[in-house]
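Can you give me the bound-state structure? Components:
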Amino acid sequence: MALFSIGVDLGGTNFRAAAIGQDGSLLDKISGSTNSAGGRDAIVDSIVNAVVTLRDRRTGDQLAGTGIAVPGFILIEEGLVLGSPNLPALDNFRARDAFEERLKATVILENDANAAALGEKWMGAGRDVNDLVLLTLGTGIGGGIISDGKVVHGYLGMAAELGHMTVDLNGNPCGCGNSGCLEKHASATAIATMARHLSLGDNLSSEDVYKLAMQGNAGAQRVFECMGQALGLGLATYIQVFNFPLYLLSGGPLAAWDLFAPAMFREIERRSFNYRACRNIKPTRIEKALLGGDAGLFGAAYLPFQAMGSGA
Amino acid sequence: MALFSIGVDLGGTNFRAAAIGQDGSLLDKISGSTNSAGGRDAIVDSIVNAVVTLRDRRTGDQLAGTGIAVPGFILIEEGLVLGSPNLPALDNFRARDAFEERLKATVILENDANAAALGEKWMGAGRDVNDLVLLTLGTGIGGGIISDGKVVHGYLGMAAELGHMTVDLNGNPCGCGNSGCLEKHASATAIATMARHLSLGDNLSSEDVYKLAMQGNAGAQRVFECMGQALGLGLATYIQVFNFPLYLLSGGPLAAWDLFAPAMFREIERRSFNYRACRNIKPTRIEKALLGGDAGLFGAAYLPFQAMGSGA
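Here's the bound-state model for the whole set.
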């Protein structure tokens, strides 16, 4: 009788769920619509049905529990979703209790970016370390911090809001009320917006800007240099603060690594003496994450194993 | 037979050592010259003599161990001082083994700012929390991070270099190679240097600037406003990163709290949505540290208790 766990990555539009073995092997996978238009009950129904389906397909095996990665702020101990900008139906919802009542089994919630960081630690680029920071570059910038193998939550579940740290005193205005947030200078959205500043074309996506840069467009290349510089300043701060051995980046803009990484590393070199001091002893690693869009799924599935103390 | 521990705070010029009980009571105290001019052996002699004196005065009681706070980078597990700008004689010195050989007893080393943060957690302003950040404002800015009751070291003992994070892209040049480091905008030295920028007087100390500001000097008041703003940006970043319940400040400039705190809080409000979001649930606290210059001594003394698992 093999032990397995179920991980769910709940997004604003779609969800994915997977049965994963204790060794990290992907046993089964389902995806579907979150049904967020139907409100709280419809969302819970979608997830519960998927979990039950995955569970029932594995009769004979033992379910360790279900981990659910949610895009929002979560009070972990209470299982309470404080707020979820992409799934407002879940605001102030005691989601863990609701899921557990329906499933009659252990459910653990986690913020989606934190789950992604945990997934990379368990089965991805961070397998060989206990401490890492993950930055996910997308519409915004999310983050997760793993310290001593565990997610750093903060006292109200709001730790690792890494996209909303100031990298430029008077930088671009941010919806959060600040100006100069990292995500306004280094996310996929920021790449597209900078291209608009340079009038490189209408409605360009960050991928379009990447293609332009690869075709030799100097403006598009400069966009990635600015993006790399902002990212480098942010990373330099984390390296000074944590002195962790590993910092991971994920998301669409990673395809443009060769375009932004030189500026990023120049900025880190200049702004972090920890980075320079460690180089001759054991270099600080800044690398691409490995699991892509599956990181949150693996992290969510790892949560029940970790809670049992049978994970690693 | 009471259990006690000995804490040592080793400075560039002087040291202090104390016998402290398991309940945090200060039992005995010695101070003296570090004898750094005499090199490594003279420094070790000074400390060993003080520890032996404190120990021998408590016959009948049981020594849990000795903790030594050292100003520098330390590989904790190896007990190796990698580098100490204020005590260069200790560079690349396996200090723990040297002390243990002389004392025939357990010795634990810790970075001085980390020890101060641990001291505040044990017996100071952080007694009621398990997670805090301490910033010590002096010639530079040092820092310590306590997570889950323990010092965050990083993989090479360089974590919490909080004074060397960028708060202004093109700010004041720093000896570390960066420009715009927090300590170049918010330390006691920075306060004095800003006063020089405004030609407020020759050879002013940060205390002189404070006195001028209290006498109504508008330039001196503006210095503290700039200092508070820089400090606020740094704290906003830590609050976004950690979401810890408590951030502590210590050092001489704390006397000027009323002059810099308004600008500091304005900046935190603006730049940290975590700070704003937590206010209605359980406010993030930013407060003065309580133990002053004794924080490192208490933190050092706590190390042996913590190692025994008999601390808190």
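A couple of observations. Chain A touches chain B through 48 residues (CB under 8 Å). The longest helix of chain A spans residues 218-242.
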